[in-house]
Amino acid sequence: TQATNATAGQGYTFTFAATSGSTNFNVTDTTVAKVSRLTAVTTSYVDQAYVANAVVSPTTVTDNSGGTKTYSTTAPNNICTVNSSTGAITIKGAGLCPIRLVIGDTTYFRTNSVTTNFTISKATQATVSITSTNEVFYMQDALMTIPLLQPTASGGSGTGAISFMVSGDCRLISGKLITGNAGSDCSLRAVRDGDANYEDAVSSRQVITIKKVEQANLAIANTNTASVGDIDLFTTGGSGEGAVTYTVDTAGAASCSIVDATKLRAAASGTCVIFATKAASTNFNSKISALKTF
Q1: pLDDT(2) > 50
Q2: Measured at the alpha carbon of residue 293, what is the angle toward residues 255 and 280, in degrees to the nearest 5?
Q3: How much of the chain is in helix, strand and coil states, percent to nearest 5?
């Protein structure tokens, strides 16, 4: 005879019934019998992302409260360790942490075991930020003897290397930023590689402002003596494609004026003072010459 739906440890008596012909027989055994059963048990963990040395406890349900619990794992200790008594997992790295729980025998419960998996996913890195300046000058290394920008960044997590991505009218050569014309588009992002425990991380976009530079010195190249009448003016120096214009600073006794944009007209003997201006262009600011006395 098999007892079904029996409660472990509960006392039971058994009645045996039989029939012979038209006669029924019922025999009750007054001996109290107690049954045992296989321990029922479940255990589980809530999966989470990697946090170094974080402790995660299980949810374990069993009808054998007196049974000794023994937890174990086959994962390497750079992924997780488990407290054999409490089942608390200490996270050591991203990966799979399989757990086996064994509930020991007690008087009316037989031993049983259950397995479950705790998954440790890669974590999101801390914020990566570009720390280098967001302003450069057009050809600053050649025209201003300022070293080319070497982008730098900080932040992130783990052991991954930091690299940079560029977009627009610029590029990176040997870690140095080479830009196009002033005012053109250029932007940077820093990337910190992931590793065993962290996902890749990308910084926010940094817009690089490419600024105009000062022109080379500009000078009116004519000699400072001239005859009354018109003389053609010319300059040396300056930079870029900007047009050159001339302005009378002091007309003086010579009653100077600028005619036809590039000629100095002296109405009489005497002196006058002028200066030249070379206009700004794509990559250069405007430039004013020193005063020139005729």
Answers
A1: no
A2: 100
A3: 0, 50, 50
DSSP state of 92: -
* pLDDT at 173 > cutoff 80: yes
DSSP 141: H
CA–CA separation, 151 and 175 (whole Å): 7
List Cα–Cα distances, 175 to 15, 169, 172, 183, 244, in angstroms: 91, 16, 6, 22, 39
For 140-147, what is the mean pLDDT?
92
Residue 44 and residue 58: Cα distance in Å, rounded? 6
CB contact at 8 A, 97 and 117: yes
pLDDT, position 203: 98
Q: Please check whether residue 103 is in contact with residue 67, taking contact to mean a CB–CB distance below 8 angstroms.
A: yes
In this structure, which amino acid lies at residue 122? K
Q: What is the DSSP letter of 267?
A: -
| pLDDT tens column, 211-229 | 999 999 999 999 988 889 9
In single-letter form, the type of residue at position 76 comes to P
The answer, yes or no, to whether residue 35 has pLDDT greater than 90, is no
Cα–Cα distance, 103 to 88 (Å, whole number): 16
Q: What is the pLDDT of residue 4?
A: 52
